[in-house]
Amino acid sequence: MFRKQQPRINLLELIPHHRCEFTVDAERIVTVKLPRFRKEWMIQFLVPRWKSPFIQTKLDRVGSFVWLQCDGARSVHDIAERMREEFGEDIEPVYDRLKLFLHQLGKRDYLSLVHPDGTPFNP
């Protein structure tokens, strides 16, 4: 009947971490590489020889900048401030855009968020 009230989480305090491989080209554009399958035998038997065992996602300029800031040391707030320094007024509303971007990457298992004390964030 009564639901236990969940503690409020401040997204700006969380710290994003990469969960997959990536490459950076000469123009600082990031391509994220997520394995098609987690198990080696699945890759061997289910991925045709002419296909890559990775699903590759190329990020745009803003996405690449954010991805490179997600080094496991910077909080979401720090990344938002760096975005403002880099892109100025063009990036506003920065918090809404960053929240949506991190949510999408988290849903695809590209990033994970942790609390400052190191405990994982599970929405």
Category from helices, strands and their pairing = alpha+beta
CATH architecture: Alpha-Beta Complex
Uncertain residue segments:
none
How many helix segments?
4
Order of helices and strands: EEEHEHHHE
CATH topology: Outer Surface Protein A, domain 3
- Beta-strand percentage? 15-25%
Give a quick account of the main beta sheet: strands, pairing sense, barrel closure: 3 strands, antiparallel
What is the strand tally? 5
Strand order of the largest sheet: 2-3-4
Mean pLDDT: 83
Shape: globular
* CATH C-level label: Alpha Beta
The separation of the N and C termini measures 22 Å
Q: What kind of oligomer do you see?
A: single chain
Proportion of residues in helical segments: 25-40%
Please give the radius of gyration in angstroms.
17 Å
What are the key terms here?
single chain; Outer Surface Protein A, domain 3; globular; 3-stranded antiparallel sheet; two-stranded antiparallel sheet; 4 helices; alpha+beta; 123 residues
Characterise the protein shown here:
The protein has helices at residues 40-46, 61-69, 76-87, 94-107; strands spanning 15-18, 21-24, 30-35, 54-58, 111-114. By secondary structure, it is of the alpha+beta class. The protein has a single domain, classed as Alpha-Beta Complex (Outer Surface Protein A, domain 3). The strands form two sheets. The protein has a three-stranded antiparallel sheet with strand order 2-3-4, with helices on one face. Strands 1-5 form a two-stranded antiparallel sheet. A hairpin with a 5-residue loop joins strand 2 (21-24) and strand 3 (30-35). Helix 2 crosses helix 3. The protein is globular and about 45 Å long. The two termini are 22 Å apart. The relative contact order is 0.21. The model has no long low-confidence stretch (mean pLDDT 83).
